[in-house]
Amino acid sequence: MKCETYSIRHGYDKKKCLVHARCCYTPNLMVATAQYLNVAGCDLFSGIRMSTSHDDGKTWTEFKEQKGLLPMEDDKYITVGCDATPMHHKKTDNILLLGHTAEYEKGSLHPTGRKRHTFYSVFDKEKQEFRQMKFLEMPNGYERCGNGSGQSLELENGDLLIPVYYKKDNEQNMYSMVLRCSFDGENITVLEMGTPLTIHIKRGLGEPSLVFHNGAYYMTLRNDECGLVAKSSDGLNYTDLQLWKWQDGSILQNYNTQQHWMTLGDDLYLVYTRRGANNDHVFRHRAPLFAAKVDNMRLIKDSEKIIVPEEGARLGNFGVSSYKEGGAVVMAAEWMQPLGCEKYGSDNNIYLAIISNE
After folding, report:
1. Is the pLDDT reported for residue 160 higher than 90?
2. SS3 content of the chain, % helix, strand, coil (to 5)
3. DSSP symbol at 6
4. What DSSP character marks residue 283?
5. Which terminus has fewer CB within 10 Å in the chain: N or C?
């Protein structure tokens, strides 16, 4: 595995920082999204911004506000699209942005947790901007359900497999499941819902991400105490739920943080954070970002490599996309909380790692 990592922007004013930086590759155009976080609050996000590159990621425009992705307000609440991931939908040749919403009571510095929806937006090639966000219609009982920080999949017929996580009324643990959806270039419609998964460890299972590899589907999941993986033959119903482990059976030590998939040629990798990397000073050990090869739902230890460096700030909210010639790109922003993490060298860098298989 060969990795070239560099910062595409930096700068921190100690009031706000760009987070949720993720990108999508298509020939002649790469699109990245990110949004500002008010560091005085908890998950206090503003609207999603966009940057583009026309030279395969070497240079990027400034992150520009998107009118269609601005916060929405009523008399009492502010709703913001967040945790978004762009992807290329090959059948319609559209760049699609998928994420979910956070809701704040006006004057509050914390999300309410009252409602959550999956939102989506289609990139307008002529105007070079994302269109007005829309919301995925779900059955009753899924008022707190969203696709946050997930990797979705396009099937051969153009349908989408979209992973979501949700809470049931009067329950604290989260459930994760996969939706099969149609996409006609403008609208996404739920066609089928998969079997939900959860565990009876604090907060259950969240932030699921999907990959298809060697004839099987895999889902990686976040829990407060561990990272987990499950397998499926149809993309909707997952079994063999287990902790992420090394081939020798020892536990990965990833916890309370998302993980994502990366494919390099015919090889499958996991990108993750973990304890035990001289990183006790980093919030939830969310830096550096590692990648390791996956074999039969376990990780090969001697394949592990740091792909985004650690400078005190967490990197856990990141994204992975395919790249030209069977490669991959990872994008991550330095999240400048807790306050003072910049003393280790972080400066709200947005890192791009271009990775190839050697």
Report:
1. yes
2. 5, 50, 45
3. E
4. G
5. C
The amino acid sitting at 288 is P
DSSP assignment of 27-95 equals: TTEEEEEEEEEETTSSS-EEEEEEEEESSTTSS-PPPEE-GGGS-EE-SSEEEEEEEEEEEEETTTTEE
- Any idea what DSSP says for residue 335? B
On average, the pLDDT of the chain sits at 97
- SS3 call for 235: coil
Range 93-106 average pLDDT: 97
pLDDT over threshold 90, residue 181? yes
Instruction: Using pLDDT thresholds of 50, 70 and 90, give the confidence band for residue 169.
Output: confident
- Measured CA to CA, the distance from residue 259 to residue 272 in angstroms comes to 5
- Confidence (pLDDT) at 172: 87
> Which 3 state secondary structure label does DSSP give 341?
helix
Q: 288 preceded by cis ω (within 30°)?
A: yes
Q: For the beta carbon of residue 356, count every other beta carbon within 10 angstroms.
A: 16
Work out the average pLDDT over 158-169: 96
* pLDDT at residue 33 greater than cutoff 90: yes
Element (H, E) at 26: strand 16-26
pLDDT at site 171: 87
Distances (CA, A) of 333 to 20, 22, 173, 316: 7, 9, 28, 9
